[in-house]
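Project outcomes to date are best conveyed with an example. Our students and postdoctoral researchers have been running inverse folding experiments weekly, and each run begins with a structure described purely in tokens. The record below, which covers 326 residues, was selected by the lab manager from last quarter's runs and is presented without edits.
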């Protein structure tokens, strides 16, 4: 059994290489999922305002702590929503998120994406339309100014570390050139069909850790995502790839375990999501084997450069957002 990989985020925070994703969970479901994951051994929990389940995540953590768990062992990650991508909105949103989570601080706070959306006055109305039905994009998004607001959250102790998600190299470089506190992490889409090597290698060269969302290819991608991709893309599923199925039989592991192990061996943190107790345990139990070099390479060659999450709203837009990252 190899040790759990860990990633140093700075400021005393370590991110375990295997975390729990919570997208597409209700508050009621995620409370049980988080508690089960913590019992199994997970110590890295990922959520977001966008997922609308931070209350349930917090309840699950509270249940675990009341049963003898130690909050200090956890790396809790959440994200600023796109309708709050202005420096003056950061603290208001994080205060709401901390209240839902029942925490005094989060270990890592991410900007969920570089494109801002206008705030209608309802923070839960994240992807609004204007009076003519066009996407209500905030084309004046100032990422450097926004980052200053994020840095303030570290200075006032509400976030231990800060980072980004879905940012490209040029956007990160702009922040690095002007920041006091460097981004600790970039959370991006990475899986067998989308190696995303350019941004992964760039981040590593800058000392920025990388966390992969959709590490299994997100077979249960939501309707909003499906509406922005082709039918051919929607049918792609790395879990069913013949190479992965063959390797799963050879190693006596599930296809999911093969895919997750591959990313760990790339030095990338992973946050698979599941509401199934046995799957939650399977996704965690990948430290007792290692892919041989030739098998690792077989998975590397599966890359189709196929992004499943193009960060499009599916709504009509007057003009592309100037900070669209891809």
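After processing, the design step wrote out the following sequence:
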């Amino acid at each position: 059994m190899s040790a759990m990989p860990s990633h140093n985020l700075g400021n005393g925070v370590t991110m375990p290489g295997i975390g729990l994703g919570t997208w597409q969970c209700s508050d009621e479901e995620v409370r049980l999922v988080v508690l089960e994951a913590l019992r199994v051994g997970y110590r890295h929990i990922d959520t977001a305002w966008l997922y609308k389940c931070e209350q349930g995540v917090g309840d699950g953590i509270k249940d675990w702590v009341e049963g003898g768990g130690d909050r200090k062992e956890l790396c809790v990650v959440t994200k600023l929503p796109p309708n709050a991508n202005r420096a003056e909105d950061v603290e208001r949103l994080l205060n709401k998120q901390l209240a839902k989570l029942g925490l005094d601080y989060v270990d890592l706070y991410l900007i969920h994406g570089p494109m801002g959306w206008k705030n209608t006055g309802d923070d839960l109305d994240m992807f609004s339309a204007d009076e003519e039905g066009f996407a209500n994009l905030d084309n004046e998004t100032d990422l450097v100014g926004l980052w200053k607001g994020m840095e303030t959250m570290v200075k006032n102790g509400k976030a231990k570390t800060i980072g980004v998600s879905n940012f490209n190299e040029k956007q990160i470089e702009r922040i690095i050139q002007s920041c006091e506190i460097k981004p600790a992490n970039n959370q991006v889409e990475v899986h067998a069909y989308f190696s995303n090597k350019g941004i992964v290698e760039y981040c590593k060269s800058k000392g920025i850790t990388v966390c992969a969302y959709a590490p299994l290819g997100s077979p249960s991608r939501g309707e909003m995502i499906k509406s922005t991709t082709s039918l051919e893309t929607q049918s792609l599923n790395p879990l069913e790839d013949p190479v992965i199925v063959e390797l799963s039989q050879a190693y006596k592991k599930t296809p999911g375990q093969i895919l997750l192990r591959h990313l760990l061996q790339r030095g990338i943190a992973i946050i698979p999501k599941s509401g199934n107790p046995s799957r939650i345990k399977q996704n965690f139990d990948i430290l007792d084997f290692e892919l041989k070099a030739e098998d690792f390479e077989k998975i590397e060659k599966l890359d189709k450069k196929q992004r499943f999450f193009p960060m499009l709203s599916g709504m009509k837009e007057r003009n592309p957002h100037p900070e669209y990252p891809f």
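The chain is about 35% helix and 15% strand. The mean pLDDT is 94. The training component of this project remains on track.
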